[in-house]
Amino acid sequence: MTMNRETLINSILAITLIAVPLIALGMDEPFIITLATKVAIFAMAGVGLNLVLGYGGLVSFGHAAFFGIGGYAAGILASHALNYEPIMSWPFELEGTTQMIIIWIVALIASALIALAIGAITLRTSGVYFIMITLAFAQMIYYFAISWPAYGGEDGLSIYVRNGFPGLNTLDPISFFALCAVMLGIAMAFSAVLIRSRFGLALQGARQNTQRMTAVGIAPFRIRLVAFVISAMITALAGALYADLNRFVSPSMLSWHMSGEIMVFVILGGVGRLFGPLAGAGLYIILEHLLGGVWEFWQLPLGVLLLIVVLFARGGLVGVLAGERKHA
Amino acid sequence: MPNAILTLSNVTKQFGSLLASDAVTLDLRPGEIHALIGPNGAGKSTLIKQIAGEIKSDSGDIHFNGQNINELDAVARSRMGLARTFQVSSLMPEFSVLQNVMLARQSVSGKVFRFFRPVLSDASLIEPAMAQLERVGLADRAQMRAADISHGERRQLEMAVALALEPKAFLLDEPMAGMGPEGSKRLTGFLDGLRGQAPILLVEHDMDAVFALADRISVLVYGRIIATGTVDDIRANDDVKRAYLGEDA
Description:
The structure holds two protein chains of two kinds.
Chain A lengths: L1 H25 L3 H26 L8 H20 L16 H23 L4 H20 L10 E2 L14 H23 L2 H11 L1 H6 L4 H27 L1 E2 L6 H14 L6 H19 L4 H14 L3 H7 L6
Antiparallel strand pairs in A: 1-2
Helix pairs in contact in A: 1-2, 1-6, 1-13, 2-6, 2-9, 2-10, 2-11, 3-4, 3-5, 3-9, 4-9, 6-9, 7-9, 10-11, 10-13
Chain B lengths: L5 E10 L2 E11 L4 E5 L6 H9 L6 E6 L2 E2 L5 H7 L1 E4 L11 H13 L13 H14 L14 H14 L4 E5 L6 H15 L5 E4 L3 H7 L2 E6 L2 E6 L1 H6 L1 H8 L4
Parallel strand pairs in B: 3-8, 3-9, 6-7, 7-8
Antiparallel strand pairs in B: 1-2, 1-4, 4-5, 9-10
Helix pairs in contact in B: 3-4, 3-5, 4-5
């Protein structure tokens, strides 16, 4: 019965995400649509992290690096396109673009390459060391962005016109929301398929018992590295959308606060639950705007809530509502 | 012994001042059960770990299936056909019993990096995995979480996982541990039939099982093999009596 209940909870979450902006559209409240878009994007970043954190048991404290790389892919390509300056002219000419699809491809490739390099080093460690080294790499990229004047340095980079998607007016809030929600849906569907595949079984095995993995002849390192790269790519895609939502990208997208926030979405919503990141991001944004509006220390109750979840409800919001997870 | 499947020559391992394996030389021949016995702390589990590749030996050579495997890690050795079970059951607690065995089948199939096809309905993994569960008598537990089955059943599951790897040799580290007399008896019968499939290097404290099963016995004391021989040789060996079995044995 627990499976059915989780399906019910998941359906409610999905319907709420779609219904709220539609109602806001009817009531002419574009700000609510923007909030819902933010939830979809944050949830997607969390879906990426959940793959390694939830299913792989790897506590990456550096996923802001990939979120920011996605954001900078959007910002840098758009700024070159709008200024009519090629990104490079030798050995071949490379122009900027305001096409989201091309930006996404660049974000995916860039994040995959960097995740491959970071993962190849960090995944040789475990536990606290892994947390710290992923953090260190993310901070390196953060400081690099701050000190790189070509793309705004500390001030960040504005995207004057939201990038385009064929057949869609991306400046229309509800259209952009729909795009983000579809991307979230694809990311979640992809993640669900991955988890149920042979690779997913191996990834979840590596979380539970490395000794046993080794004994059956599967090297946990390679499994984890592939998962880390895929996870980074999903989070980077969310980052590209986030830059387009704000029409602005800055080093704050790369900062450790951001890594922490993405982690909070996953933990709050439910580690290793498909809809956990959506529940977590939703709850986070709701708290931020209900409490944040009246009390500037709104993160204090958030901290208490997080503490309660970690101590008493490991399955997060989805876990509390849907009951314990059935095996894998 | 040219036709031995597994050969250890002068395998040595030192932890600080403790000599865990002292120039150990032994072999495992096709069709046999070679029991490795010795008092607690003799270095039996350390030796198993060295053979499995979990601990690197300081010196000496290990040959498996005609190849020197000194430089191969545990994953590579497992893939070559060395299957080990653990003294303390080492399983995937959150997986079902069936999934534990399927993971081993997945490794044998060589196709781990498959991202799209659902694994839990993959008949090419389920059928051979169920076959092994039936062999060890766990088929009716297939859907239970490994964490929720009894201690004895976890020992059986360890065996099923090892069997699923279709190994060329088994390294069994105290498979009877905590099984109870009934379970030990059943497992003894099972292992007796297993030697035909692949030879077994058996570390075991249950002497009834060892004497019933072993074609040869090696006695390890303080990391050193003090005797190797048939059951009768070992029973008659004075060194062994003194060091291990006690005068009255």
